[in-house]
Design brief:
Layout lengths: L1 E6 L4 E4 L5 E14 L5 E12 L14 E14 L5 E16 L2 H11 L12
Parallel strand pairs: 4-6
Antiparallel strand pairs: 1-3, 1-5, 2-3, 3-4, 5-6
Protein name: Single-stranded DNA-binding protein
GO molecular function, one term: single-stranded DNA binding
Keywords: DNA-binding
Length: 125
């Protein structure tokens, strides 16, 4: 399954009891549709994501970055300390593609925009 969304917070690296590292982050996806009355309804879905392949990716997964994720989704349900039922979606991520929008990409774009290199001025893009 693929999802495209925006990180809601900076990624965190955690260690399991078996000393494996996992990168945890949260992604919000937006969808909209029109109901029977013709009103536009906006719907946001939140995914708690886990990436096990490399902890280094946490450095570039910053709040606001748009990512395209490939992986498996699963639902979970639990009862909170207050006795209320809760539900959430987990996304076990196997591939991450960055689309920008976070702190790192803004820094790269600002730096690239200040280039005075004349050789690149005639590029068609």
């Amino acid at each position: 399954m693929n999802i495209i969304g925006r990180l809601t917070r900076d990624a965190e690296v955690r260690r399991t009891s078996q000393e494996k590292q996992v990168v945890n982050f949260s992604v919000a996806t937006n969808d909209s549709y029109r109901n029977k009355q013709g009103e536009r309804i906006e719907q946001t879905t939140y995914f708690d994501c886990a990436y096990w392949l490399s902890a280094k990716v946490a450095q570039i997964l910053t709040k606001g970055t748009v990512v395209e994720l490939t992986g498996r989704v699963s639902a979970r349900a639990w009862t909170g300390n207050d006795g209320q039922p809760h539900a959430g979606l987990n996304f076990n991520t196997s591939q991450i593609k960055l689309h920008g929008g976070g702190k790192k990409s803004e820094t790269v774009q600002a730096h690239a925009g200040n280039s005075n290199d004349k050789e690149n001025d005639d590029l068609p893009f």
